[in-house]
DNA sequence: ACGAGAACCTGTTTGC
DNA sequence: TGCAAACAGGTTCTCG
């Protein structure tokens, strides 16, 4: 479900409710999500205080007292539901984990498709953790820019669409924002990644930053089941230029083209073949 | 090594 | 109306 702007919005919503709070009780209702829960998951968390909540790519990382870190990925359908007090019983069929805080609030992790994951690590090992160590640069950071994107694309024959979905190239983009960024940069999703290195990468990097910043400002995009931790809906979906707009006329310019939908490596791509070359 | 496609899972929408 | 196929914001494994 969520891409970088949605995860960032969720982290910003959770941070003030979690940082400084102690996990008084952790209930896990099944053995696994995408991967098994670690041994003694609840016991290793209960009694710990959350010292810091961060986002890395589409991962949420909570640092806890005692040197442990909780790593969470929301997959396609993961969401956090905040209850001021105990949630209603019985839990919903997709409410897999329940964190009760020392202020009495409860955070429920709900994930219909179970593509999400939760695992534990030592804070000291986070940079070398297998889930995190190979991720590309944060697109909103200074290390990501035209030259660095160009270098990452050089020599790659895969379509630029696939290269941007690859979290090694740049971390945090998903299907929606890749489509939107390529539209904004005027680059065809079918173009070989290597041919974007150079001048086109100089357009693409700022397009990616712009789209992501605007989406964060709008609280992310709500299509199906994404909600902020507070339960509010994002509204960036109203600003999509191409995503989900197959057949509509290309907006924002007078090229006269229509938005097309094609499938690339099994996923829908939306683009305007007149404007994007 | 690299890229395409399948697999993981459930719910909703689309099409015959 | 009913059922089956297609589709959904992600990641990872296998196969060629």
CATH superfamily of the largest domain: MutM-like, N-terminal
Q: Enumerate how many helices there are, as a single number.
A: 6
Biggest sheet strand line-up: 1-6-7-5
Task: Compute the number of structural domains.
Answer: 2
Task: Please identify the top-level CATH class of the largest domain.
Answer: Alpha Beta
Rounded radius of gyration (Å): 20 Å
Strand content of the residues, in percent?
15-25%
Order of helices and strands: HEHEEEEEEEHHHHEE
Q: What's the story with the biggest beta sheet? A: 4 strands, antiparallel
The end-to-end span amounts to: 28 Å
Total number of strands: 10
Write up what this structure looks like.
This protein has 277 residues and is of the alpha+beta class. The protein has two domains: 125 residues, N-terminal domain of MutM-like DNA repair proteins (Alpha-Beta Barrel), CATH 3.20.190; 95 residues, Helicase, Ruva Protein, domain 3 (Orthogonal Bundle), CATH 1.10.8.50. Helices cover 23% and strands 22% of the residues. The protein has six helices and ten strands. The strands form three sheets. The protein has a four-stranded antiparallel beta sheet. The protein has a four-stranded antiparallel beta sheet with strand order 2-3-4-8. A hairpin with a 2-residue loop joins strand 9 and strand 10. Helix 1 packs across helix 6, helix 3 packs across helix 6 and helix 5 packs across helix 6. The radius of gyration is 20 Å and the shape is globular. The relative contact order is 0.14. The mean pLDDT is 93. It binds a DNA duplex (16 and 16 nucleotides) through helix 5.
